[in-house]
């Protein structure tokens, strides 16, 4: 690790994620100078004027950057910073709220995983409908070569990760704790599998513990990493909605999947869908159409099953409808019901006969009587 990596690793332990004052100072002075100033007792640069320096300095004396770097290396992970080969440059869109650096663990380089990625987020208390839809959506995305990014939580997050793994694709879990911390505990095996086949990501150094504020700030990284954010289920007050609005502020696509209008888990999604620039989708192909390449990743148009009625002109359809499916009707009666002259009606009847849609009535009926096929 060079001096910049070491300095940023140290700063990652002194500051909270999303600290824009620290981000501004890094932009102006660089990480080594900012760390030196924080380690001294002197005044901080003007970028920190709204921050109490004690809030940073109180954490001095904890685990060193060398300790943290050694810990993540033992786990097979690494610490990446802006400008690195594996740094996802879309995170730079966060400006001064850009992460100081990212602790990553897993075989898939984060920059590669994030090139074609979609965030899938939603309620922790996902319904059976929500978790099923999420799982199928993530499978479809993975099968088409898209990385699913989520937060590793219960409910929709977990279903998104599992679906991506089931589809044979890598998945990225952005954590609000250290990459060596299994949180939530019930996802210990899932997170371990992501660490073996995908990528675990965190702004917090090893051993970092989750908190409400850290979950909120984690959402901006999920939003920035991905080309778009899909919200499957979310209540009116939901972290998933925060992720969606962070995505919109960054110019990313915001996508919602509707649920039952009576379900509180979908109330936030429905509110999001009423806002400008939120797209409604029902499956992976439609998500890809919205976040993929213009003119190339088009979803097939959905339609109901075609019937023979779709191929008929208006007059022929009226004639066919005038022929009873069970009984029989004469040409004159059919012409009258269809509102056509006898000659025109007879012409359409001959056309329908060739198509196999009508037939001449049985010999017991009058000669000019007709009968419709029963299955129409």
UniProtKB/TrEMBL annotation:
<dbReference type="InterPro" id="IPR057666">
    <property type="entry name" value="DrpA_SLOG"/>
</dbReference>
<dbReference type="GO" id="GO:0009294">
    <property type="term" value="P:DNA-mediated transformation"/>
</dbReference>
<comment type="similarity">
    <text>Belongs to the DprA/Smf family.</text>
</comment>
<dbReference type="InterPro" id="IPR003488">
    <property type="entry name" value="DprA"/>
</dbReference>
<dbReference type="Pfam" id="PF02481">
    <property type="entry name" value="DNA_processg_A"/>
</dbReference>
<feature type="domain" description="Smf/DprA SLOG">
    <location>
        <begin position="79"/>
        <end position="291"/>
    </location>
</feature>
<protein>
    <submittedName>
        <fullName>DNA-processing protein DprA</fullName>
    </submittedName>
</protein>
């Amino acid at each position: 690790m060079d001096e910049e990596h070491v300095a940023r690793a140290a700063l990652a332990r002194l500051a909270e994620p999303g600290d824009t004052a620290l981000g501004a100072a890094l932009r102006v002075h660089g990480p080594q100078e900012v760390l030196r100033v924080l380690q001294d007792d002197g005044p901080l640069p003007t970028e920190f004027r709204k921050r109490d320096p004690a809030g940073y300095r109180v954490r001095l004396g904890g685990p060193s950057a060398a300790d943290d770097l050694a810990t993540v290396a033992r786990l097979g992970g690494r610490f990446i910073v802006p400008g690195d080969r594996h740094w996802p440059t879309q995170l730079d869109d966060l400006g001064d709220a850009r992460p100081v650096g990212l602790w990553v663990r897993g075989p898939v380089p984060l920059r590669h995983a994030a090139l074609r990625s979609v965030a899938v987020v939603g309620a922790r208390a996902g319904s059976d409908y929500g978790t099923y839809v999420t799982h199928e959506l993530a499978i479809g995305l993975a099968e088409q070569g898209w990385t699913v990014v989520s937060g590793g939580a219960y409910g929709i997050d977990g279903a998104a990760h599992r679906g991506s793994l089931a589809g044979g694709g890598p998945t990225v879990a952005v954590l609000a704790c250290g990459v060596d911390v299994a949180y939530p505990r019930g996802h210990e095996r899932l997170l371990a599998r992501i660490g073996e086949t995908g990528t675990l990501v965190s702004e917090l150094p090893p051993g970092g513990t989750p908190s409400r504020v850290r979950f909120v700030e984690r959402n901006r990284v999920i939003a920035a990493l991905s080309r778009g954010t899909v919200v499957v289920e979310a209540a009116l007050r939901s972290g998933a909605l925060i992720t969606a609005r962070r995505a919109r502020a960054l110019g990313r696509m915001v996508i919602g999947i509707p649920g039952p209008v009576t379900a509180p888990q979908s109330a936030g999604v429905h509110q999001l869908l009423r806002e400008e620039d939120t797209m409604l989708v029902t499956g992976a192909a439609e998500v890809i159409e919205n976040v993929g390449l213009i003119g190339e990743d088009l979803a097939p148009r959905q339609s109901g099953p075609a019937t023979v009625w779709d191929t008929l002109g208006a007059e022929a359809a009226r004639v066919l409808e005038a022929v009873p499916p069970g009984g029989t009707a004469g040409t004159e009666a059919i012409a009258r019901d269809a509102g056509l002259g006898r000659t025109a009606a007879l012409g359409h009847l001959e056309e329908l006969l060739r198509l196999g849609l009508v037939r001449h009535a049985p010999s017991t009926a009058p000669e000019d009587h007709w009968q419709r096929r029963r299955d129409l």
